[in-house]
User: Fold this.
Amino acid sequence: MKLLVTKLWFPYNVRTTLAGLFEIPQIQERFDEGFLYDGEMRPQDIKVCSGYWPANAVLDRLPESKKDVYLVLTSMDLKGDYGRIHGKGYNRKAIASNNSFLSGAKNNIFDPRDIDFQAMTFHELGHALGLSHHDNDSLNHCAMPLGSHSWSSLDKIRFCDECYNKIK
Ligand SMILES: [Zn+2]
Ligand SMILES: [Zn+2]
Assistant:
């Protein structure tokens, strides 16, 4: 399976951002064909409400895929069904915004190895592959429970065995 990557107003390096994501072992295993950068998407006619881009409308502009998974990287603020979100995933498509994961005086420095950003992206890819939220199990760490799990490093981020078996 391949990860098809596109960007939407993402003024950062796509390849180094993906290199960070691919430090997660289950990403390497699942996306054994790596990623393919497909350029910038320019969705037309999307109604942007008070500066927030509607995540569903962006994802719905992507082609359908039966085999691979699409990932949109953006620096725009995103809106979900009820309010601001960092990312979203369903139906083999995911979007992740790094806008809450920037640092520096001008809030414009992005670390492509930012653990929280990559864990959020990983979570949304889980949704894109059909996984749902579930309760936290401290003995079987997983990126799918809601709430912030603090991972100690990129290579520790994972789905629990039950989730991972579902997407194998
Ligand atoms: Zn979720
Ligand atoms: Zn799980």
Notes: The longest strand covers residues 3-8. The domain at 3-166 is CATH 3.40.390.10 (Collagenase (Catalytic Domain)).
